[in-house]
Amino acid sequence: GFGCTQTSDASYVFGVGVSTVNKSDIKIFPNPVTSIVHIESPVKVNVSISALDGKKIMESSDATQLDLSGLANGVYMITVYDENNNVIKIDKLVKTSL
């Protein structure tokens, strides 16, 4: 401030919410989907499906696939989290009956 300086002791910060997995490592297919959507990831992931207004519709732990056949046709958001609940990827998911 007024020409004064002071140094604090070192602080260590852990768990800052940064995942070591890149969003490009996560594959979500098919999109658009009629019933089963598959999630491929190099690590275990948790997944949530939300409406466009942000309301969570479905959640799954250690997810490799989700059955969306009970959902109405439309656009949803799929959020993929790592085991520490850090967001890895958010994507638009289209549910259709083809």
Give me some keywords for this one.
single chain, 98 residues, mainly beta, four-stranded antiparallel sheet, three-stranded antiparallel sheet, 7 strands, 0% helix, elongated
Fold and architecture overview:
This protein is an all-beta fold and 98 residues long. Helix content is 0%, strand content 39%. The protein has strands at 27-29, 36-40, 46-50, 56-60, 65-67, 74-81, 87-95. The strands form two sheets. It has a four-stranded antiparallel β-sheet, with no helix packed on it. A hairpin with a 5-residue loop joins strand 6 (74-81) and strand 7 (87-95). It is elongated. The N and C termini lie far apart (65 Å). Residues 11-15 have low confidence and may be disordered.
Summarize the structure.
With 98 residues, this protein is mostly beta strands.
Question: Which helices and strands, and how do they pair?
Answer:
Layout: E1 27-29, E2 36-40, E3 46-50, E4 56-60, E5 65-67, E6 74-81, E7 87-95
Antiparallel strand pairs: 1-2, 2-5, 3-4, 3-6, 6-7
